Amino acid sequence: MSEREFQYMLPKRIESCLAALSKLYAQDGKRQLQEIIVNSQTRVVEAWASDNWNGGTYGHALYLVVPEGIYLRMAKKRSAIQKQINEDLNHIHNIQNEFIAEVFLEMEADDNLEWRKDSGLLLACKHAVSPAATKRIWEDDAYRVFLSHKAEVKKKTAELKDSLHLYGVSCFVAHADIRPTKAWQDEIENALSTMDAFVALLTPDFHESSWTDQEVGFAIARGVPIIAVKLGKDPYGFIGKFQARQFAYQ
Fold this sequence. Notes:
By secondary structure, this protein is of the alpha/beta class. 40% of the residues lie in helices and 22% in strands.
């Protein structure tokens, strides 16, 4: 009989064999082995083994894919567990001329892309800013201040920038300082990454802009000094802990 003519039965009955093995492990108090069997996803790879006078014997590789938690608990003794399950399956099934040649335990794929961050050990990556970009954004030897504001007050913010220049302060005002040829977001990130301090000009609609909120978050993450200027709106969220400087808003 050729391999193609032989009708494999063990792969078709593997679930009933595993069910019987689970009951046997429960009966014998082998909880860890039963846990593996019950929680596994199975895959059988058929493999012809050898010929003999009565038609040959046929072996199969059995893959048991288990959740990460179970796999990690038994990883150090995986070889012994695989061998035990292999032997026990061959003892429990009664299918002639077929056997489990080998059992492989595998860990279920984990699509968690945040595992590095979740470990708590990931070092914060710094945004690399070229010397040319730094020179373009800030004046030499000046204290660098990022002025976060809504577009509606860009003229007054630009006037504030000019006033602070007299005191040796170099300010970044997004709507005035970003050149048309430069990518908007990249230039803002460059300024946020190289600033010495951050000023939030809290006009009534400041919170309505996702840009200003992200800028505030960037400043908090960097740990630079933050000044909240109350121009019709109280500090909120993470900047609520900072004492606001109050001015009349017109």
